[in-house]
Amino acid sequence: MSLLNSESREEADDAALGESFTKGSGHLIWAALAAAVVVSAAIAILFITGHKPPIVTGEIVQVWAHPCHVETSGFDANGDAMEKQSFDQVLLFAHIRLKNQGQGPLHIEDIVANARQADGIDSISAGGSAQFEEVFVAYPELAALHTNGLSPHATIPAGQSIDGTVFWAIRHMSKQQWDARTDLNFTIKLQNQPSLVLAPHTAVIVQ
Fold first, then answer.
1. Are residues 48 and 60 in the same domain?
2. Are 93 and 186 in contact (CB under 8 A)?
3. Is there a single domain that holds both residue 79 and residue 95?
4. Residue 190, pLDDT score
5. First and final CA of the chain: distance in angstroms?
6. Residue 60's beta-bridge partner residues?
7. Which residues span the domain enclosing 10?
């Protein structure tokens, strides 16, 4: 066999080897692309299922505070004499808006005001609808705040929004203590659902 034929056979063998290698590389590329698609789909599914929109959203539209000094009359409901009491308190009002983004009704268990002081957090449950009305009888100067009251035990229908004013009486807190707070937020406690914590985005108005 001539040298020329030998070289031709070697070149053919090299070409065949190169073609085989190219075919193998093509299979690897397609396998890598398929794996990338599968991984991307899995990540997308995890993202969608793991980042569901919250079942309830809300905002604190405005907050008002009315620090005051209280002295009892010295008589009970029957007109009998009793020991007078004197204390400071802060009447707190918040206009709250809530939206139910779920498929069923949401039941509010409580709305709590959380005021952080130097010695800890004072957490106070909201007053009921009857107390909301009574406070404007006792403090007629707050009549401008007597708008639509929001019950701390309201139910939000599916896909609906509610809003109104909620009331708290923070007993034994002076104006100086109120002014010294370092934080204020509100916890909406829901039945069979995680609580929603909202903070005001505007300054508290002192009445």
1. no
2. no
3. yes
4. 97
5. 111
6. 96
7. 1-52
Q: What is the predicted pLDDT for the residue at 42? A: 46
Amino acid, res. 120? G
Q: How far is CA 146 from the centre of its chain?
A: 26
Query: What is the reported pLDDT for 58?
Result: 97
Number of folded domains that form the chain: 2
* Residues 41, 120 within the same domain: no
Of 16, 35, 52, which residue constitutes the final position of a domain?
52
Q: Which residues of the chain have pLDDT under 50?
A: 1-7, 12, 21, 42, 44-49
* Structure token digits, residue 55: 């079942």
Find the helix or strand (DSSP H, E) in which 11 lies.
helix 3-50
42-45's contacts with Cβ under 8 Å and 24+ in sequence apart are: none
Q: Are residues 156 and 185 in the same domain?
A: yes
Residue 192 gets the label, from left (phi > 0), alpha (psi -120 to 50) or beta, of left
Residues 75 and 175 in one domain: yes
User: What is d(CA 63, CA 198) in angstroms, rounded to the nearest whole number?
Assistant: 12
Which residue matches tokens 């609906």? 160
